[in-house]
Design a protein that fits this description.
Order of helices and strands: HHEEEEEEEEHEHEHEHHEEHHH
CATH class of the largest domain: Alpha Beta
Strand order of the largest sheet: 10-9-8-11-13-12
Oligomer: single chain
CATH topology of the largest domain: Rossmann fold
Structural class: alpha/beta
Number of domains: 3
Bound molecules: guanosine-5'-triphosphate, magnesium ion, zinc ion
Distance between the termini: 53 Å
Largest sheet: 6 strands, mixed
CATH superfamily of the largest domain: P-loop containing nucleotide triphosphate hydrolases
Length: 336
């Protein structure tokens, strides 16, 4: 690892960044500073809890903070960053650059806002957890996350948890078929009885997978079953807040699977404020594959649109069409 005089580096950095935006730092760096940044090691953010950041670097967890010029940058769990390792046991690592993301899950407060919140960066998979005993609310939420996952290049999985509370399981059949038809794997679980947890675990191998869902659906309960000794790992990373409601995102390794699992705080709503209504259909697979011959068709009642035929042929599920119409009108309203 290159030896770096951190103090000198930071001075140079401050000078270079006196007049630039705090986000894309490296653009404005001098050639010598750029070389130093390039020599820095790449670490991965595993926890962000109010200004406290933990990264993993060569299997070691390092508490970190931003180097001088990086103040004001926002990083999320999963982000790849360049770090200067700590000089001694009393020091913390310094983050010197945020690298481009391969994938992202972004939500906004509501559809009219553009206040991007990055739920997770560079993950492969997103598991949307719903409660099987309140499927209708959960499915509406899930449809929004599926759109955001498509925008952010993530593979979605649906997890219908709390199945121990469902007496008539045939109520789940339609939802399972509907999502499997559009290529979304569905897992039915109970964190209470352990049912389905192994089937969920099998989807994790070799991936970074994040959980999202409303508060109380059982994300952390599943997480605790999937990650043995989780309390110890979480204590090491230093998560703060109560035991029950997750207050900050955290990534932990899943032993034996070469996988990382990210638990995130429950959210009330999943806004799509950064998406144009005109692009919405591209992010519902059954509409993206519709073979509609009209140019720029929104499949919203245009004469000659193929949607009615696809609906009649069962290629598009009425509930998904209903979702599309609701989201389309919400995004249009938001665009004003
Ligand atoms: N019956 C039943 N209860 C469950 C199941 N999974 C979780 N619970 C309970 O539901 C409550 C909420 O579970 P959590 O795992 O904390 O939910 P969460 O999704 O992490 O919630 P937030 O952190 O607030 O987002 C707890 O009381 C759990 O014991 C399940 O499969 N069946
Ligand atoms: Mg939780
Ligand atoms: Zn059309």
């Amino acid at each position: 690892m290159a030896r770096i005089d951190v103090e000198a580096f930071e001075d140079e950095w401050e000078d270079d960044h006196a007049f630039v935006e705090p986000r894309r730092k490296t653009d404005a760096l001098s050639e010598s500073a750029k070389r130093k940044v390039a020599e820095h090691e790449v670490a991965r953010v595993v926890a962000v809890d109010r200004g406290r950041i933990t990264v993993v670097f060569e299997d070691e967890l390092l508490p970190s903070r931003f180097a001088g010029g990086m103040r004001g940058t926002k990083v999320s769990v999963g982000d790849r960053v360049r770090v200067v390792p700590p000089r001694d046991v009393n020091d913390v690592a310094r983050i010197t650059e945020l690298l481009d993301r391969d994938s992202w899950l972004i939500r906004t407060g509501d559809d009219a806002q553009e206040d991007e919140r990055v739920v997770v960066a560079n993950a492969d998979q997103i598991v949307v957890v719903l409660t099987a005993d309140h499927l209708d609310v959960g499915v509406r939420f899930a449809d929004r996350v599926l759109v955001a996952a498509s925008v952010g290049r993530l593979d979605p999985v649906l997890c219908l948890n709390k199945v121990d509370l469902v007496t008539d399981r045939s109520t789940l059949d339609d939802a399972v078929a509907r999502y499997e038809a559009i290529g979304v794997p569905v897992r039915i679980t109970s964190a209470e009885t352990g049912e389905g947890v192994d089937e969920l675990r099998m989807l994790l191998a070799g991936t970074w997978t994040a959980f999202t869902g409303h508060s109380g659906v059982g994300k952390s309960s599943l997480f605790n079953l999937l990650v043995p000794d989780v309390d110890q790992v979480v204590a090491e990373i230093g998560r703060f807040g109560g035991r029950h409601t997750t207050v900050a995102a955290i990534a932990v390794p899943v032993p034996g699977l070469e996988a990382w699992l990210v638990d995130t705080p429950g959210v009330r709503s999943f806004g799509l404020g950064t998406l144009d209504a005109d692009h919405l259909a591209d992010h519902l697979p059954e509409l993206a594959q519709l073979d509609c011959e009209l140019d720029d068709c929104l499949h919203d009642g245009e004469p000659g649109c193929r949607l009615p035929a696809a609906l009649a042929a069962g290629e598009v599920h009425p509930a998904r069409l209903d979702t599309y119409r609701r989201l389309l009108s919400a995004l249009r309203d938001a665009e004003g």
